[in-house]
Amino acid sequence: MQRLIPVLNNDHVPLHLISVINTLLTATKEISHLLHQGSLAGTLGSTLEENIQGETQKKLDVVSNQLIKNMLLETNLVHAVASEEEDFVVMGNPDAKYLVAFDPLDGSSNIDINGSVGTIFSILEKPDHPAEGTELFLQTGDEQIAAGYILYGPSTMLVLTTGKGVRMFTLDHTVGEFLLTVEQVKIPEDTKEFAINMSNRRFWTDPMERYIADLLSGAEGVRKKNFNMRWNAAMVSDVHRVLSRGGIFAYPADCRNPDKPCKLRLMYEANPMSFLVEQAGGRSSTGYERIMSLQPTDIHERVSVVMGSRNEVDICLDYFKKFK
Ligand code: AHG
Ligand code: MN
Ligand code: MN
Ligand code: MN
């Protein structure tokens, strides 16, 4: 089985970019080890702190953030980083060109139940025009030069795109290397599986409510087929299922909290996942617009998400057109 670096070399990925990705992976191997050790590592449970989004930080949110941030900045190849767990952009080498946005630990609520969690990352280049701090990152998803996630499940996997399709690698713990296990990821165009937090149903907007109601109506209903539902409560592991066997994943806007109608973050959750999904032949939208075309206004901005199997997402988007 091929190791990561020769695979990226074959794809003509620039050496410095390979080095950035590899450094990030070194940090994630450490996170994988901590997760594996569970209570024995003393890193489960919560801190007394909140992040800028008002979420109580888990110890592993903080530890993972420190590991990834410090290792990336030490390479001297990174100009700046943006993280879910950092209020503001953190500057690195002024002469370096790479920008890395990341969600150090995705699915934090799964940490203490020994469930699957992940790390998500998105890599951009410093823009041509003069920019500082937050401004550096305010680029559309289409500007990403690489994106991926690490899934810490029963095995630890890397799912990566540099714009030439999507590959899956599995961490071989005996040698500490990610080995190529899926050469070309293709999301089936049709599906009978959906992923959404149904407990928010009463807060959804009309299009989402009607779309899911039709899925639930089963073989006797308008869709004429029975749908199954799965929800792991970690975007990495829910989207991994979609990339592996198809499906539709949605975290739509809702009216629970009028100040924050959306849950998922554009820069380090929705954009990198959209890049992967589109590169694997799927679709990704807010319901009204393609996610990777959105012009961001803040590193922590939130967005409505519908992504996955192309034909199913298209059907869902018809509801957004019809019931606006
Ligand atoms: P994070 O743990 O990085 O804050 O992200 C959590 C997100 C995402 O991973 C997942 O899809 C969603 O929150 C789960 O939301 P619910 O708690 O509503 O299920
Ligand atoms: Mn969080
Ligand atoms: Mn997350
Ligand atoms: Mn997180």
From TrEMBL:
<dbReference type="GO" id="GO:0006094">
    <property type="term" value="P:gluconeogenesis"/>
</dbReference>
<dbReference type="InterPro" id="IPR028343">
    <property type="entry name" value="FBPtase"/>
</dbReference>
<dbReference type="GO" id="GO:0006002">
    <property type="term" value="P:fructose 6-phosphate metabolic process"/>
</dbReference>
<feature type="binding site">
    <location>
        <position position="197"/>
    </location>
    <ligand>
        <name>substrate</name>
    </ligand>
</feature>
<keyword id="KW-0378">Hydrolase</keyword>
<keyword id="KW-0963">Cytoplasm</keyword>
<dbReference type="GO" id="GO:0006000">
    <property type="term" value="P:fructose metabolic process"/>
</dbReference>
<dbReference type="GO" id="GO:0000287">
    <property type="term" value="F:magnesium ion binding"/>
</dbReference>
<feature type="binding site">
    <location>
        <position position="263"/>
    </location>
    <ligand>
        <name>substrate</name>
    </ligand>
</feature>
<dbReference type="GO" id="GO:0042132">
    <property type="term" value="F:fructose 1,6-bisphosphate 1-phosphatase activity"/>
</dbReference>
<feature type="binding site">
    <location>
        <position position="106"/>
    </location>
    <ligand>
        <name>Mg(2+) 2</name>
    </ligand>
</feature>
<feature type="binding site">
    <location>
        <position position="84"/>
    </location>
    <ligand>
        <name>Mg(2+) 1</name>
    </ligand>
</feature>
<comment type="pathway">
    <text>Carbohydrate biosynthesis.</text>
</comment>
<comment type="similarity">
    <text>Belongs to the FBPase class 1 family.</text>
</comment>
<dbReference type="Pfam" id="PF00316">
    <property type="entry name" value="FBPase"/>
</dbReference>
<dbReference type="InterPro" id="IPR044015">
    <property type="entry name" value="FBPase_C_dom"/>
</dbReference>
<feature type="binding site">
    <location>
        <position position="103"/>
    </location>
    <ligand>
        <name>Mg(2+) 2</name>
    </ligand>
</feature>
<keyword id="KW-0479">Metal-binding</keyword>
<dbReference type="GO" id="GO:0030388">
    <property type="term" value="P:fructose 1,6-bisphosphate metabolic process"/>
</dbReference>
<keyword id="KW-0460">Magnesium</keyword>
<dbReference type="Pfam" id="PF18913">
    <property type="entry name" value="FBPase_C"/>
</dbReference>
<comment type="subunit">
    <text>Homotetramer.</text>
</comment>
<feature type="binding site">
    <location>
        <position position="269"/>
    </location>
    <ligand>
        <name>Mg(2+) 2</name>
    </ligand>
</feature>
<feature type="binding site">
    <location>
        <position position="103"/>
    </location>
    <ligand>
        <name>Mg(2+) 1</name>
    </ligand>
</feature>
<feature type="binding site">
    <location>
        <begin position="106"/>
        <end position="109"/>
    </location>
    <ligand>
        <name>substrate</name>
    </ligand>
</feature>
<feature type="domain" description="Fructose-1-6-bisphosphatase class I N-terminal">
    <location>
        <begin position="17"/>
        <end position="182"/>
    </location>
</feature>
<protein>
    <recommendedName>
        <fullName>Fructose-1,6-bisphosphatase class 1</fullName>
        <ecNumber>3.1.3.11</ecNumber>
    </recommendedName>
</protein>
<keyword id="KW-0119">Carbohydrate metabolism</keyword>
<feature type="domain" description="Fructose-1-6-bisphosphatase class 1 C-terminal">
    <location>
        <begin position="187"/>
        <end position="319"/>
    </location>
</feature>
<dbReference type="InterPro" id="IPR000146">
    <property type="entry name" value="FBPase_class-1"/>
</dbReference>
<dbReference type="GO" id="GO:0005829">
    <property type="term" value="C:cytosol"/>
</dbReference>
<dbReference type="GO" id="GO:0005986">
    <property type="term" value="P:sucrose biosynthetic process"/>
</dbReference>
<dbReference type="InterPro" id="IPR033391">
    <property type="entry name" value="FBPase_N"/>
</dbReference>
<feature type="binding site">
    <location>
        <position position="105"/>
    </location>
    <ligand>
        <name>Mg(2+) 1</name>
    </ligand>
</feature>
